[in-house]
Amino acid sequence: MKTKDNGVYIEGLIDGTAVTLLLDSGATTTLISKDTLEAIGKKTDDLREHNRTVCSVDGTPLNVQGSVELKLKVGSFTTAIDATVCDIPNIQGILGQDFMANHIQSWDIQNHKLHTLDGNTIDCVTEGTGLSVCKVLVKEKVEIPPRSFQMLPVEVKGFVPEVVFVDGIQGLQDISCRVVAGIVETQGEDVSVCVVNDFDETVSLEAGYLVGE
Fold it and tell me: Is the pLDDT of residue 177 over 80?
């Protein structure tokens, strides 16, 4: 994995074709571009019908072509992914919350590694230009049920560009609760991050609690 423009990207293979995919906790679903679909030798005729609306970060609807099941390989990690094909500019694809919830157990920020649920480890490199530090705080008190993930409303304090990359903090409240690192669009009315409760009990986070930076 590597980062470009302060975002985290996974380099791997989709159906045997080399791709670079953005890992984004702000995206609810996994997407690939129409160009990527064509690069791996598939056509829009191969797609299943997709009736849900997909929008960019500014709310603009994207032209959805359909959905398709693909084989993703990153190092020794291999899985099938269900991807929505749409016209997304300047990027081959996005791995969203569905991918992270189904496959990622933890993100070791200090050692630059992703740990998958099936025991694989994906090395990553955190590089980028123009990095600025800000803090991400819980906006209001929330409770996260055991063994679940939830999108939490947050406030971003400090230097706030239109888009920030949040390094998740693991071990919140000294228990197995973690923030999924990823890109957060800060200019909308509802800014949120994905928090995963790996514990067997409900976790409470008070307003103002630091969940990322």
Answer: no
Q: Dig out the tokens for 30 from the structure.
A: 């996994």
- Separation of alpha carbons 184 and 70, rounded Å: 26
Domain count, the chain: 2
Task: Tell me the per-residue pLDDT of 143-165, one tens digit each, with 9 for 90 and over.
Answer: 888 888 888 888 777 655 555 55
- What would the DSSP string read from start to end of 8-47? EEEEEEETTEEEEEEE-TT-SS-EEEHHHHHHTT--GGGP
> Same structural domain for residues 11 and 115?
yes
Domain hosting 15: range is 2-123
The residue written with tokens 């909308």 in the block is 188
Residue with tokens 């991400």: 136
Residue 128 placed within a domain:
no
Same domain assignment for residues 155 and 67: no
Q: Rounded CA gap, 43 and 114, in Å? A: 32
User: Of 123, 148, 171, which residue sits at a domain end?
Assistant: 123
Report which of 206, 73, 199, 210 is spatially closest to residue 146, judged by C-alpha positions: 199
